[in-house]
Structure formats: C-alpha cells, structure tokens
Amino acid sequence: MQGGIFRVCVVMAAALFFQKENTTLPEQEDDIIHRMKEHQEKLQSEMIRLEQEDFKQDVEVPKAVEEEGNQGWDLWSALSLIIFLMIEIWRQDFQDGSAQESNSEEEDYLVIQNISQKTTLPDKVVLASFHDNCIRISGNEFWRMREFVEGFADDLLEALRSVCNRDADMEVEDCIGVGSMYENWRVSKPLLCDLIVPFAPPEPYRFKFQLWCCSGNDIPPDRQGCGRIKVVKASEDDSGCLCGKSNLGEDMLCLLHGKNETPRANDTMEDLLCSRNTPYLAKDQVMKWFQISITKAWNRISHKYDFELTFRNLDVPGALKVKFRSGKVIIFNITPVVQFEDTDAYFVSSFNSSSLPDVYWSLSFAVYEKNLLKSLAKKLPDNPCHLSCLQIVCFLHRKQSSLTGKSGLTNYHLKTALLHLLLSKAPSEWRPEHLEKRLRDIFRFLEKSLLEKKLYHALIGNKQVSKAFLIPAQFRASEPLNLFRPLVLQGDLYAKTVESFHEMLRNAPVLIQEYTPHIPNGHVPAPQNTRA
Fold first, then answer.
1. 309: phi then psi, degrees, rounded to nearest 5
2. Are the CB atoms for 511 and 135 separated by under 8 Å?
3. What pTM was computed for the model?
4. How many degrees, rounded to 5, is the angle at CA 516 between CA 511 and CA 519?
5. Under 8 Å between Cβ of 46 and 54
6. Model pLDDT for residues 89-101, shown as the tens digit of each residue
C-alpha cells in the first residue's frame, strides 16, 4: 500500500514537471529526461537499501509500528521529491521569463536601430541647401521682431505698474527673453517671442519655496521638477521687520516703515493670490490677476498705437496677438513667473504645467539653458552645425505632426537632446561639413531615449556640465530628472509618440528632397554664421 502511494506521487510530480517543461527546446527536454531517470533510479535503489536495513533491524517490532514507520518514510520521500521538482520548475520558469523579457527588449532595440540605420539621409551639400533655403531665417528678421516685441512689452508692463495698487498688488519686474527666438533656432512662422515677467508679493510678504529635491518637503514623487510657493510674512523670518509683531510703544519709530505705514495684518491669503484655505500661491489666481492687469494696462496706452491687441488663448494669460491695419500679425507670450531665490531659475505659471495641481509650479531653467548654449557655442569652430541640426529636426518633427497629429515629443525634448550631445562631443565634431553625421547622432540619441523611456534634463543632476558654469548647488547635486516620465505614464500617448517618430525617420529623406531646390553642379552658397 505504501509503495503504491509513493509511486502515484512520483508519477503525479513527474507529470507536473514535464507539463511545465513542454515548451523547452528538444535538446533541453532530452537532458531533463535523462537527469530525471538517473534521479529516479538512485531513489529506487536507496529505497530498497533502506527497506532491507529497516527489515533487519526491526524484525521484532510490532507490525502496526513497522507499517506506520514505513508509511511515514514513504510520505516523506514523496514530499521531498515534490519539493525538489517544484523548485526546479520555479527555477526554469524564472529563467524563461527573464530570457523572454531580455529578448523582447533586444528585439525592440534592434527594430528601432534598424529604422535608424535604414534611414538614408542626403549628403551635406543637399542638407545645407535644404537648411539655407527652407528653414533658416535671416538674422535681421530676428532682430526686428525682438526689438518691436521688447519695446512694446516694456511699455505695456510700465502701464501695468501704474494701474496696480502698489500697497496690495504684486510687484512686476522687467521682462526677460527666453526660448528659440533668443537662442537663434526658431523654425516656424509666424515668429513667436517668449518673455517671462518675474513678480513679487507686496510688503511685508515674501515667498518661501519648497522643492521636490530638498529633504523635509512633502512633495509627492510624481511632482519631480516642481515646487510649491508659500506666501509668508517677512516678520516670520529673523531678517524681517519686528514692528508688525511687537508693540514698539509711542516713543519708538520703525526705520523701515513710517508712522502711518505699518504692515497690514488683515490681508487674507486669497487677496495674495493663494489657493483657498492654504498659504500656497495658486497658478489660477495668478493667471486671472495677470490677464485682468494686462487688459487694464492696454486700455491705458492703446491710444498711442495704431494696431489691435487681443488675447490668442484665454487659457494662457499672456498669449498676445498684435494685428496691424495692413493685416500683418505679430504674436508673443508674456508669462508671469516667480524667481527662485537669487538665481536664474523661475517657477512658471503655464508652459505645460496646466496638468499639475494648482499649487504645484514647474521650475524652468530657460535662462540657464540660453546661457549654456552661448557658452558652448564660443568653443565651437566657425559656422558650427549644431543649430542647423536642431532646426532640421524641428522642421521634420513639425511636418510629421501635421501628418499624423500631435505626439508627446516637443521641441524642448529636441533641444535637450542637442544639449546632451554638445556636452559629450568634442567641439571639432561640430564643423559645418559634419552636418549629416551630427543630424544622425540626434536621431540615434532620441531613439535610444525613447526605447529606454528616459530623457534626462540637461542641467539637473548632470555631471557633464562644467563646474565653471554656475547653477544652484541643490540642482547640480540632485538626482537626474527624467523628462519622459510624464509621457511614459500615458501608455497610449507614448506608443503614438514612438510610432510618429519612426514615421518621421522614414519620411525624412522624402521631405528633405521635396523641399530642397535644384542644386546646379552641387554648388551651395556659403552658410551664414549660426553661432548662438
């Protein structure tokens, strides 16, 4: 009876094992079967030997006790064999699963690499002609556009200051130009200037910042690259004035505030553009205040100008459009921002931050990036091809978006890829004759980033940035910031982005040839200096 139970257990365990291993390769099956036969023969011989020894030693043991002992040994042997087989099955499954995941990643990588390798780009002569005739915008046009926008913006902001209550409203500072127009790689028309306008709270208030990369702040992990702006009274700081929180007496006079100029104690957080029932600055409140202030400012100075000023997008407070009587249109953005301490980093109230909760502000390094491009360009040879590469990629990306719809890839991602390559390659690699090679490098870098689902910020936590280039220490020491994280969390958008990028690579040769004029005798005019 006991032997029968043991044999049944062995058969069941072996059946389970071979059922799991049925998907292995033929040579693996033969090896496993051979090992199992050897193991079974060893177990049978061992069982016979032990039964003989037990029979000799236990002749005088009562039959009931002998049967109970043999039954216990048989069950223990069967259980041990089953445990051994289950461990072997788990080990094989783990190896197979890991191999499948590895093979899947390798297959995806090979697919993307094949697309890149099969993309036949025109030679440097055709690329240079394509860039000069279809993409490049003259420097004079850049300067005229920027000069008009900056002059009008200064006048508008001065009028805004005059209509605001200096004792209650936010204090607006001078505007700063950022983005492609100020980095000389703008591609599409009409030209668009991006201006940021820092603002500060009225006395006796100040801003206190909470960053995702600083310990002690309860910023959620999915808010990387963001922070909160807390509005506090200056008296809460040791360096603030004490007259607002203590009774100085009739004989004491504050040297910072006049006799009739005392800090207001009855201001509510809503009056300071904070989110309801919190001390944190709210983007929605700031956008509403800025839009109303811009409207009042234009009403004050509109009689001086012979054109119309309207809002292009009501969801973006400073998206403005100037329309002349001749029909000519000029568009630009004025975005209210908050300066982070005494640095060139700014918390922005828009610029893709609309998906964040109202009290979380995206941190922009646009000024640092503009300065980094200028700094790196000084080390490059004459007429470097770095901006030409970026402009060609942006042009192809815009054309592809018009065909297949908008994807998760933005011009900012493309600029970030260029910055990484500028930091990693020798300056001599950016000579004008290397345009085709560097363009292919950008394609490969973007492909690899999409495959790995990681595109790190060019400045935050990047060890390749020279220490001579001054950025705040907390950002230099921070963990790298993955710009693709929000994209990857949206599976459908990520898949569409990868597909759209592949299509762009396939269509690139056709688009370039289509937009390139005929080149007689392969002669191309000398390119204009494209230093940033």
1. -125, 125
2. no
3. 0.72
4. 145
5. no
6. 565 554 444 444 4
